[in-house]
């Protein structure tokens, strides 16, 4: 079968890899000149199978309300005259109760485990190097109240088989001694030893090269303009070469949309209604002046909700979310406040360790769903598949999502309890049924 994979982020490239392994002819199309140039470019670098709670929980509405007016708040909702934003917001609110939280966490844990296994096997098979650190993820808290909440979350997550320990301040420092100078401001932490970190861009690009070597064709610098439907099936993808401006239509048997946040607008004209909305996030990558004093364990600073990950001689600080449409500007006042806050906080926790003179700022749009669960599977058009909406966890779930969609396209049910689109549902209450309709 000739399969077109639309999008060369972590999700599209992993999809292409596994489809090729299944023996399909694969063509990947992307508007950029290389893989992983958009949201997969400079994310928080965490493979967080065990830190996977969705944003939507019973306390979220109050927190979001409190944060509304603050430019530096971890989650910022900027109301717009945009029906998609309101649809997303309302669905998000409907997920803010314990029943939905539990249902969503179960699926995120299942996909995370499957993905972690897939990633490990893929790395063993290909030998790809991407600054991988198998040191776990450490979550540190600055107040006893927040630590208590973190400990309660750890207890809850253990119910789903997640391996998350609660730590005293001394135990936090034993796991990451580089935090020593910040110790007085650490109340304690939680730790998931099986989690990992590594550079998503480096991994994705290396995998794209392996795909090419295995016979996958990459059509970079091509805008995808739309899909032509005939007789209830997608017949062609319409593209335009960004360099020459020349348009073309390409015929295929199967199409997989893996365009991150842009998947929803591309498929909307076909009547495929995906509730994916962009959540803008930022990162700062700093060169280390004193690598010997820098952390190696990937961490989350709970007070600021930011991730800190070591990437060789660099440190990546990432976080915050802004629901404000498809805006990737870094030169707005809000963007400046948010980027500066990342650097300032890093220097507060690790004084003098990084060179602050040339921060490398970046922004990306998390393809967010109200549940944080991605859409993986078949749409109502039988040869149109989706692998999108991975929100905060696309790097974590990339390998598993790619493998799962390739298995589904090849006629096999992946071995995990997950509400794949277009299937008869999963054991998780209602989710599968609801998802058949898109
Ligand atoms: C600040 C931040 C921190 C994060 N930290 C983490 C983390 O620590 N761990 C984790 O697991 N996840 C993290 N994420 C989430 C993760 O980065 C995303 O979920 C993931 O990158 C999404 O991958 P994707 O392939 O779906 O999208 P993308 O990487 O955006 O890929 C989509 C591709 O489609 C192409 N495209 C789009 N529209 C068109 C078109 N019309 N024509 C042609 N091509 C098109 C784009 O060029 C792009 O290459 C973070 C995200 C952000 C923003």
UniProtKB/TrEMBL annotation:
Residues 2-408 form the FAD dependent oxidoreductase domain. InterPro entries: FAD-dep_OxRdtase, FAD/NAD-bd_sf. GO terms for cellular component: cytoplasm; plasma membrane. GO terms for biological process: D-alanine catabolic process. GO terms for molecular function: D-amino-acid dehydrogenase activity. Belongs to the DadA oxidoreductase family. This is Amino acid dehydrogenase. The lineage of its organism: Bacteria, Pseudomonadati, Pseudomonadota, Betaproteobacteria, Burkholderiales.
């Amino acid at each position: 079968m000739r399969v077109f994979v639309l999008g060369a982020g972590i999700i599209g490239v992993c999809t292409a890899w596994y489809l090729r392994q299944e023996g399909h002819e694969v063509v990947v199309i992307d508007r950029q000149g290389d893989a992983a140039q958009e949201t997969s470019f400079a994310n928080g670098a965490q493979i967080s199978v065990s830190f996977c709670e969705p944003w939507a929980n019973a306390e979220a509405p109050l927190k979001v309300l409190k944060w509304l007016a603050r430019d530096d708040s971890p989650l910022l909702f900027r109301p717009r005259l945009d029906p998609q934003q309101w649809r997303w917001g309302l669905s998000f609110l409907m997920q803010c109760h314990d029943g939905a939280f539990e249902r969503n966490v179960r699926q995120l844990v299942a996909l995370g485990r499957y993905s972690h296994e897939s990633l490990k096997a893929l790395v063993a098979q290909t030998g790809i190097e991407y600054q991988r650190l198998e040191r776990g993820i450490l979550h540190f808290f600055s107040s006893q109240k927040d630590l208590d909440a973190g400990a309660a979350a750890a207890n809850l997550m253990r119910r789903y088989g997640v391996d998350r320990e609660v730590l005293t301040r001394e135990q936090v420092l034993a796991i990451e001694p580089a935090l020593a100078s910040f110790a007085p401001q650490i109340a304690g932490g939680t730790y998931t030893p099986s989690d990992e970190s590594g550079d998503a861009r480096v991994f994705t690009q290396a995998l794209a090269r392996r795909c090419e070597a295995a016979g996958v064709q990459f059509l970079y610098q091509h805008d995808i303009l739309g899909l032509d439907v005939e007789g209830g099936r997608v017949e062609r993808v319409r593209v335009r070469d960004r360099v020459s401006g020349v348009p073309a239509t390409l015929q295929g048997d199967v199409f997989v949309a893996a365009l991150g946040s842009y998947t929803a607008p591309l498929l909307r004209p076909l009547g495929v209604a995906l509730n994916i909305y962009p959540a803008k996030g930022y990162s700062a990558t700093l060169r280390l002046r004193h690598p010997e004093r820098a952390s190696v364990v990937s961490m989350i600073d709970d007070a600021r909700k930011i991730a800190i990950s070591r990437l060789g001689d660099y440190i990546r600080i990432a976080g915050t979310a802004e629901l404000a449409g498809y805006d990737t500007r870094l030169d707005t006042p809000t963007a400046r406040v948010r980027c500066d806050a990342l650097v300032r906080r890093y220097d507060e926790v690790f004084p003098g360790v990084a060179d602050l003179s040339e921060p490398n700022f970046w922004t990306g749009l998390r393809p967010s769903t109200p549940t944080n669960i991605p859409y993986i599977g078949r749409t109502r058009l039988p040869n149109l598949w989706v692998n999108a909406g991975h929100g905060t966890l696309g790097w974590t779930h990339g390998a598993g999502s790619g493998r799962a969609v390739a298995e589904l396209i090849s006629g096999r049910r992946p071995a995990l309890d997950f509400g794949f689109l277009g299937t008869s549902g999963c054991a998780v209450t209602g989710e599968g049924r609801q998802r058949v309709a898109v």
